[in-house]
Design a protein that fits this description.
Strand content: 15-25%
Number of helices: 6
Largest sheet: 7 strands, mixed
CATH architecture of the largest domain: 3-Layer(aba) Sandwich
Helix content: 40-55%
CATH superfamily of the largest domain: Glutaredoxin
Oligomer: single chain
Shape: globular
Number of strands: 7
């Protein structure tokens, strides 16, 4: 009986250790999320700006309409809790910076019907687009070599990627990345 109890406690300790490691190294919202190993010069926005994606209502949109703007591009999914958690701050950022040539775009790696239902229950202030498989290609071209959600890329007004973040972000982190772009 004691041996069985110790075995269960050991298994529980191992699961907790793995959970802590996963949280600390992959999901920790307080850790530095910046992709420190990124060579931004190798990233291309061409696929993004040549894409035509459906918005949450199924209306096809040409993403080239955002050329010349500073873009905070957030890759997310309806089934992703950290993605949903960061949306209120992204909405606030979009609202606060709209008059400063900054736009937040949400690119859902999800199905149209799920995104539509989500947006009806959880409205956001920024444009949402749906791109199941194509979204992963766009994300990969913008530095998401891990296929992680959420993933955020900041693109300057010249169409160059200047920052990328794996995992959950927050408004203050994004504002610190936007400051130098707005000072130009």
């Amino acid at each position: 009986m004691l041996k069985k109890l110790l075995s269960h406690i050991g298994a529980l300790a191992m699961m907790l250790g793995l959970g802590f490691a996963l949280y600390y190294f992959a999901l920790n919202p307080n850790s530095p999320l910046k992709n420190l190993n990124a060579d931004y010069s190798a990233l291309s926005t061409q696929t993004l700006f040549t894409s035509k994606l459906s918005n949450e209502n199924g209306v096809l949109q040409d993403l080239s309409q955002y050329k010349g703007k500073i873009i905070v591009l957030n890759f997310w999914a309806t089934w992703c809790p950290p993605c949903r958690e960061e949306m209120p701050e992204l909405s606030q950022l979009h609202t606060d910076y709209t008059n400063k040539n900054v736009v937040v775009l949400g690119l859902a790696i999800d199905e149209l019907n799920l995104v539509k239902a989500f947006s009806q229950n959880t409205p956001v202030s920024y444009p949402l687009f749906v791109a199941e498989n194509e979204g992963m290609v766009i994300g990969s071209n913008l530095g998401n070599d891990k296929g992680v959600l959420p993933y955020t890329a900041i693109i300057n007004a010249d169409g160059l990627v200047v920052e990328t973040y794996f995992g959950r972000i927050n408004k203050s982190l994004l504002e610190s990345a936007l400051r130098p772009l707005l000072a130009r």
